[in-house]
Fold:
Amino acid sequence: MQWQAFNEYLQQFKVEISWISWTTDHLGKKSEEIWRRVCSEHNISIDVEKAQKERRLIYQNLVREGKLREISGFTPFFTKLKKIFPSTIPIVIASNAHPSGIEASLKAINYSGRIKYYSSEAYPSISSKYDLLQLVAKDLQVSTKSCLIFEDSPHGAAAGKRNGSTVIIINSSNLPRECFNTPLIVDGYTDPNLLSYVQQLSEK
Structure:
């Protein structure tokens, strides 16, 4: 839906981001970085701050229209995840999305207030997912090397690996496996290997 929101805004410039370009080049990156690349590739000039605000409104309208759906199997997996790990181990969201988008998304799938989140957009000094993960670990008073990260983008996976974290890829976008430099790749939350991966990691 983030992809859809970008393309709805870009219609006025007769520009469209292809799905393969979105998933391999843009997914998981900050909006400002996406805008800069799109403008450069398509030779268009926009007011980035204005574009970001308008695109956020498009996304939130799509959410309000009920078009956002929970990825299949997430709730049962999340419930089991909390049983595997002690309550002292925090489970959080670390995202490059804007706080308003995260709030709208969590509310749409009835998770508002149930998961703490960190948005890089709330910290002007944060320029990348790598920096965001550093900030989250510091705030939680843990080492990045002790973190288990679930990712769906090559960009996010690379940031997690660079931080020394263990990364499990939830490949819900069906990207080629070579896009991710990690052996822990599952097709979704219903993949039978996912819980066994997590169980093995928790026992270590």
Summary: The mean pLDDT is 92.
